[in-house]
Design a protein that fits this description.
Shape: globular
Bound molecules: zinc ion
CATH architecture of the largest domain: 3-Layer(aba) Sandwich
Low-confidence stretches: 1-5
Structural class: alpha/beta
Largest sheet: 5 strands, parallel
Number of domains: 2
CATH class of the largest domain: Alpha Beta
Radius of gyration: 19 Å
Strand content: 5-15%
Number of strands: 5
CATH topology of the largest domain: Rossmann fold
Mean pLDDT: 84
CATH superfamily of the largest domain: P-loop containing nucleotide triphosphate hydrolases
Length: 291
């Protein structure tokens, strides 16, 4: 599953300027609630496969001109600018030669205390935050200790545990996808692949009722579903990398893989399993029909 995380990170890089790419991605219900209640904090660590997509969805919704139920509209000028990576108040910081250096954090520090250009919120997204060098992390810590008004920092990483404890203690931690604590049986995953691939291949010709029937298969218990969804994600990541032929486009495959990581991760938290599976299969069906 670690491989999946890395692959998704790389694919994000090649796709994040595609305006429509993240449009189907929903902000997690918890973050949407916090936004609606006006209770967003100053600093977050987002980990897991869907962390970057969540950070971008949050970047959209905080300045969205017409948010709905705590979700960004994806069509207003502000949402479009975030999608095109050209919003003046949203900064996505990537590591420079495999590290975040102190210079970049000094620039962040200088920028963070300036007023937002567009009068809304400022948001800094630090991609692969585990690559912060110690000096750079200490500089960032100074900013987190005296957070500027109306500014949100999101540290995106595969594993939040790898960040300095001093940084962690200043941030709220959210795990999206959360594959780290999931022990999956490789043999089971492999055995499931042909069956899952066949289902995905037929997806575009199935009716919604047929697709939802699959989600109600009673032979699988929770563990069985976690394996099924993990096998599905593996296949879709391969399709997104063009290593496997699927009826879904590479772009749709990645979107679906992120959606499953995101929604499927909730299964382990004992949230209504039937409802979650229905949501996953409904979205899969929608994706396959708007391919
Ligand atoms: Zn909007």
């Amino acid at each position: 599953m670690k491989e999946n995380l890395k692959a998704m990170d790389n694919l994000y890089d090649s796709n994040h300027k595609n305006e429509d790419f993240w449009d189907g991605f929903l902000l997690s219900p918890l973050l949407a609630e916090l936004f609606l209640a006006g209770r967003l904090g100053h600093a977050y660590i987002f980990s897991g496969a869907a962390a970057l997509a969540e950070a971008l969805a949050l970047a959209k919704v905080v300045n969205c001109l017409a948010p709905k139920n705590g979700q960004p509209c994806n069509t207003c000028p502000s949402c479009k600018k975030v999608a095109q990576d050209c919003h003046p108040d949203i900064r996505v910081l990537k590591p420079d030669k495999d590290a975040h250096h102190i210079d970049a954090m000094r620039r962040l520090q200088a920028e963070a205390y300036l007023q937002a250009y567009e009068g809304g919120k400022k948001l800094f997204i630090l991609v692969s935050a585990e690559l912060l060098l110690e000096e750079a992390a200490n500089n960032l810590l100074k900013v987190l200790e005296e957070p500027p008004e109306e500014t949100i920092f999101i540290l995106v990483c595969a594993d939040g545990e790898k960040l300095l404890p001093t940084i962690r203690s200043r941030c709220q931690l959210f795990n999206f996808g959360g594959t780290a604590d999931m022990v999956l049986d490789e043999a089971k995953l492999k055995a499931l692949q042909p069956q899952v691939a066949e289902f995905l291949q037929r997806l575009p010709i199935l009716t919604l009722t047929q697709v939802l029937q699959e989600s109600r298969c009673e032979e699988r218990d929770k563990e069985g579903w976690l394996h099924y969804l993990a096998a599905m994600t593996q296949i879709m990541v391969k399709a997104a990398k063009r290593e496997q032929e699927l009826s879904l486009s590479p772009q749709t495959s990645l979107k679906a893989a992120l959606m499953i990581e995101h929604t499927g991760g909730l299964l382990r938290r004992n949230i209504n399993q039937k409802l979650l599976l229905d949501i996953i299969f409904l979205r899969l069906w929608q994706y396959s029909h708007t391919n």
